[in-house]
Each structure stands twice: as C-alpha cells, then as structure tokens.
Amino acid sequence: MDHNSRPQQSWMKDSFSSSVIDETASPTQFNPSEFFIPGWKGEGLITASAIVIKNTLSNLSIDAQALFKKSCSINKSMKLQTYHEFMHFAEYAKLDKSLLGQHQDFWLHFQDESSPLKKHIDDFLKVHCFRAVAIYLFRIKFIMDLAKEQRLVVTEDVLMNPLSFLGKIFVKDSSTELLCDSLQINQYSWYRPTLEYKDSLLKLKDAFENVTLTELIKLISTPKDDKIYSIRNYSHSLSHLTFGLLVNELLIKFPTWLKPESKKKTFAGEKVCILPKTINTRFVGNHVSSMALSHWLAQETNVKISQWNNLICPEFEGSEFIDGQFLKICQELQFLSFLTRIAAEHRYEIVPFICKIMREKYKQDPVDGLGQASFFNLGELPSGDTLYNRIVLNLTELPKTNPHHFLVQQILAQKAMLKKDAMVYVFTNQKLFVPSQSERVEQLLKDFKVEAAINMEELKGKGEIAHFAYILTRRTAEPVANKHLFEVSRKTKESCLSFEFKGNLTRFNKFNKLVEELQSFIKHKNPITTPIFVSEVEKDIFFEFHQDAIIGGKLVSSVSNKESGHLPHPSFFKNLTKSSTSLDTFFAIEQIVPEDFTQGKRSLSSELLGLKFGPEKQFPLLLIVNQNDPMDIRIELTPIDAYRGKLEQYGTAFYHYFGLTPKHPAINLNVFREYFSSMLGHQIIQLQLSDGPTKLKAKLRSLLVPSFFAKAHFMPERTKHAFSLLDLEAREIKNLHPLDLKQRFEVLKGQLAREAAEYPWHLLSLLSHFKLQMKSLVEELEDGKPQSFNFGNSLISSELVKLKTYAIYPKNDDVYVEYKIKSNQDLQLPLSSLHIKTTDDSTVLIFKFQDKDIIHLHANAPMIHFIKFILQGAVGIKIADILLNLRIPSSHDLEMATNKFEDLKSTKIALLKDTEELIAGILRTEVSR
Fold first, then answer.
1. Cα angle: 285, vertex 288, 289; to 5 degrees
2. Closest Cα to residue 44, out of 291, 247, 210, 263?
3. Which range has the top average pLDDT, 214-228, 257-271, 451-465, 831-845?
4. Alpha-carbon separation of residue 547 from 494, 515, 544, 618 (angstroms)
5. Is the dihedral of CA 522, 524, 527, 530 positive or negative?
C-alpha cells in the first residue's frame, strides 16, 4: 500500500505523533490510524515490540519528571543548560520571555506554583523529560546491537549506567577511543532510571532486536498527547524511501560520475582498502525530520550492497526547536547502531570500524584542534566547527519579500562549513537563475561553481519536494578581487548539466521511476559526451537531460543559437638589463599558424552550439607582432577572442600571431600594453625584433620586460583610498566638474611621488586604467556629436538651471510637434520608450507606446538630445502630461551653455598628457634602479 495515496493521507495527520494500541478503547472505537506508522515504508502496522518500547517510554517519562526536579535543580551546569533549552522552547511556542532575563529567573518560576509561566513550564517539562528518556533509549539500542554482535552479556546494571559500559569498550587514549558528540555531556544526558525500573529494562532487549530503526524514530519523536507539536508541518513525500534514494544517488554517485578523475586509482601490487570512505554530510533547512526518515529508509535498502565505497555520515539539524539539538543527538546515536549493523553485514571488525568512521567524521581540516572535556572516557572531540564533504540544504519555505536574496545568502553561509572541493545540494522552490538577478548570481559564482540543475517545477503530485535542486561545488581558489586583472582561472562561460523531471504522478510511488531513470543515466551515460537525452519513463512522465552553459550569471541552453624616440643611453640600457627579465617569464608563447584559422572556419557550426576549436580554445591571450614597417615594429596584446577579427583585418603577410598562456595567477594586460607603447618599450622592440620573421618566436620569448611586473604588490586600503580617482570609470569621470577633477589630480600627483617606490606595479595598473578612461572621453568629446554631450556634468548643469524655460505646447519656435495618432485618446497612453532618429538633414525624437509611434519632436540635434536627457525618467507617464508640462530653454541659450564642453575637453586632454608622463616616469625610475 502506498502511504502517499489519497485515502491514506487522511489517516496521517501527524506522523510524528504515531499512535499505538489504546488498551482502554472498546472494539467499536477501532481506528486504523492508531496502528499505522505514517511514512514508515507505507506497508506495516505497529509491532508488538514497538508496543513494549512505547509502554516503557511512557513509564520512564513519568520517572524522568520526578527525577528532574531533584537532580537538575541542584547541578549548576544542568540548571544553565535547561534554562537555554527552555528559551528555545519559548521562542518556538511564542511565549513572553520578558520574565526570564537570567537563568535563575527560570528556576524561581519553576518552584513557584502561582507563577504565570507555570503551565508553560509544565508543558516544557513533559517534552524535555520525554526527550531525555528517548535519548537514553537510543543509547540502550546501540548497546543492545553492539552486545549482540560482540557476544557480550547485558545486565540490568549495564542498562542502568550505559555510558559506563561503553567507556569500557571504547577506551580513552587507545586505538578504540570513540569520538562522539552525542555521548558527551548535554542537556539530555542527566537521565538514568531509578532502581524500581531495573528489572523491567531487560524486557527491552527482545523488543529492540525486532523493532526497526525507522519505527523507533516514530515512537520516540514526541509524546502522543503533546499539544506543542500539533502544529508540526510534517512532509510525507520528503520522508518517503524514494526521495531518500534520490538524495543518496546525488550524494554518492553523482560527484564521481561528474569528475571520474577524482576517483582514486589503484596500481598493481597496491593493497586496496576495503573500508568505505567517510562522506561527512549535513542536512539542514526545512523538514529535516522528514529527510532523516527517508535517509534511513534508503540506507536500510542499501545495507546489503556487496561493497560500500562511500559511507554517508549524516548530521541532521533543523531550523526549529523541534528539529534542533534533540534531533541531531538522536540521529547520531542511531548512526552508531547503523554502523554496528554495517560492520556485521560486511564482516568488518565492529569496534575499530565504528571508531575509524567517527574519527573521520570529526576530523578537522587542515589541522585538528584541541579537545574538550569528555564524558565517561568516551573520547575528546576536536574544538571548532565540524567541516563537511556534503551539505544538503532544503529551503522550501521562503520569505515573501526578496526570496532570491535569501536563497543566495543561505548558500553562501554554508561556505565556512565546507571542506576543500565539497558540494552543496540545494532543494528550493526559488529559481536560482533569474535574468533580473544575474549580478547577484555572479557574486555567488565567485565562491561556487554550479555543476547541475534539476528542474521539477512541472512535476505534479510530488508533494513537498522542491521545484528545483542545484548542485554546487565550492571553488578551491579565491578569485582576485581586482577588476583590472586578467584572471586566468576565471571562465566567462561555464558548463552546467540540466536535468528535468516533468509529468503527472498519479501516485507518489511513481516518483521511484524517475529516480531509477536517473540512476541508470548516471551509470551508463557520460556527462561530457551526452549533449541531449530524453526518456518517457511512463505515460505522461518524462526525464530529460541536456548541456547548459552559465554566462554572465544567466543559464543559457547550449542547443540554442548564440549569439618614435631616441635609443636609450648605454648606461640606461645596462640598468635595463639588470632590472628586466624575459617575456617568457610571464607567458608560455606559441605561434598560431594560418591553418589554425582555416580549421576554425570549418567549425563555425560547432561554435553556434557553444563549442570552440582552434586557437580560442588553446590560449587566453593573443599577441600580434606588426612588422609592416621594418623601422617601426609594434606589438599588440589582446584577449584571444579578437583573433579572427584581427586576422581578417591585418592578414598574414606582415603580421604574426602568437597565443599566450600566463604563468602567473593574474596578469594586468594594461601594464604590458603601456610598456609596449612607451618610448622605452618601443625602442627595446626595435632592437630585438627588427630582423623580420626569422626566429621571431625565440626572439619574442627573450624580449626584455621590467621584472617588477611580476611583483604584484597591492597598496593597503588606507593608502589606496588616496588614489580613488584613478579607479573611476569613464561615466563617473564624465560627471566631475573640471576644477574638481584638476584639483583631485594635483593632490594625487603629490601622493604618487611618495608611494611609487613601494607600489610601482599597483600604481602603474591604476594609471593605465585611468589613461584608457580619459582617452575614451577625449575621443568622444573631439567627435563633437550631440549624443556625446553630458548634460549631467556639474559644469554644464549649473549653467542650464539658470536658463529661462518655455513650454513646448501648444507652440514653441524651436520645437515642432508632429502627431502620429488616429485619436486623441492615444495621448493618454503611457510613455514606453524614447528613440532618436537621425537623417542627413534632421533629427527627430520619437515618443513610443510599446511599438507604436505617438508623436515626433523635430528640433536641432543638441535640443533633441537635451530633451531626451531630461525625459530619461519619464517612462510610464502619460504622453499628454509630458507635453503639457515639458519646458525647455531656447536653442540659442542651450547652445551658449553647451559651449562649456570645450572646457571639459581641454581639461581631459591635459590630464591625459599628465597621466602618460606619470606612467613613463614610473617605468624610467624602476628600470634604472
């Protein structure tokens, strides 16, 4: 029977409040829900063994409540731990915590029968004592399983003091020392049964042997009559065996399938270790209890697999009080019992195997920390946070405001807990690749690489399973945080595997068909050589796969179309040879022959599919040697993407092309370009490359380059702030007042003279960047076209605000309004966009609603561009309102104001010349040291 079918869903109101036989109920009150364990394989009723455990649990809970008032109110450490536990309870139950400022306040209210918190404290006490007993029973379960396989005798005394018994098996400071967080002192470790229950504890032995781990989870999760847990939002689909198998497949098989080279290879004569590798895994987020159950169902299904190469060491910790520390401790104790079963099934030495797995679980990277105090000699735990190989992040409950930001922040928060090359599996209802959020995704991609995306948005009947799943790998190397550097390791285009499950699950157990298809696909298909795969698993249920790419923070389908001075003085040259090194110190240099281009042309169809062959794939940089004029040899350095265009433009008669691969982690292209175009660099090029194409490659490799280019020393932030002007982009410089720009540059020059000796490379990088920005602005201003006018510059805007303005409606001598409408009602439409149309004799500003022209404004070019500038924020406003309220200066006044652009141009030309002199000065100084 499928426990997710509709008739049974009505039985399963709360699967963590699993019911058992009510001995007081009459036969006429029989209810199947009292016997059914929701989520537990969906095929069994509660067993007689479970009833024994249930009755014992109820009795011990009463015993624990009586004991709690005696023991926990005496021990200071326990009093503090209990107070913190109650505060978590109060937060979950939304209680007023104003009366509980300190831990002593809780105990005063605890002892006060008339306290307004009395009822809440009693509710907490029931839950807390129930949890203490549940954890005690888990320890008993572990001891029973261990004793059975080790043929040890379990007496009443052992059950009364389980930690003492375990301390004799797992001896401190020995090879069998057990590192285990759940066996340390915690807020639940205070409970041990009183003597009156000593004899009845042995009845648990047979019960534990016959009850399954998942059934035990159901029984001890919460008291049946607990009102606090009645609002638990339990997920039946996430607790299903099939979902557990899906997660297991992704955690174990997917990484090896994705990167088979990471699998350790064994050599002839090498002894193969048969013990499985530990995969430390953290489950966190929403519905963690449900995910825990599906995990153990999947593990029980796989327990008899002949060889376990990997073993998931799970840690479950939800975001709520009910799924917090209690769940984490219970699941680790369950894991110990599971390890016992695995060791017995695969004939490992049980105690050494358990110790080995737990040591690996708590192993710190790169260096283990110091220990913390142990409990009953059961091993010291490393200090500091545990690091994980895998993190499963289930985020199906998202905030209503800005869910994408929440998703990205939650993913980034996992980075500190991940080992090297670790992976994060994100299940979420929020799509990660949203075009409008591409900048945020790009920030995420600096720390993580998205390996795969699973889309289940169009899969109906999947219950609480998330719409999307993303598999991310933590990047090993931190990106260089400098926009001027060419980053070799950074790719503008990265692959991403896309899976899609879609269709209609008439019964939830059909989800297993999709999981089996995924398992088969991973087993038989190659992730690189399989471009597209589609399978109709069953009628109206589909499994699809294709290669995707991530470009600029966006997911793009790979199957769709893509779019001259004097020679230096001899002494200066001598100093140059001492302070310089060869170009091949920085780059591996290989010549690109014309056949490479011919081959590249033949692969044009492949490029449309996002695949590249030829030079673009082999080298990140292109160096061009221009020997068109033997007396003026030039070198051009550019990214390899420009190769085809340059080859078409220059040809191959006098131009020679070389592919460069940087040998340093980051190369500043602007620094090398400035050197090659400088007087000094130009003269060196003439000296070394003037013999034509003969052995050009060898000569190019030995070309002298200042050695300080390799010393990428960055200024500290406080020093760098003084040179912030050099870091501005052209659009930012464009808005600065000329006087302000000149004053800031003069101050900067004085500071540069003091810092150039210590940070020449960084300053040269900033100056070369500033030079490029100034050069582009000068070229724009010299063009003299109206579209180059920057009306937002404070020099211009200060003049514009002084001008008298005139309405353009109903009549204006400088502007003619041409209506392109059939009805006056069209003027009530909102403005969608503005477009300028220029012909040989006129310039027109077009007001549009969507694709429809509404009006045309005719005026001279400066006026048209000025009107467009002041209306840049008018999109969405009625066009009629714009006509009625728009006021502009006269054409004559506007022309007089824009004459100030000449001041802007002269200022920028002067600063460009000064920047070039500063660059030349740094080069001269450094090479003459």
1. 160
2. 210
3. 451-465
4. 11, 20, 11, 22
5. negative
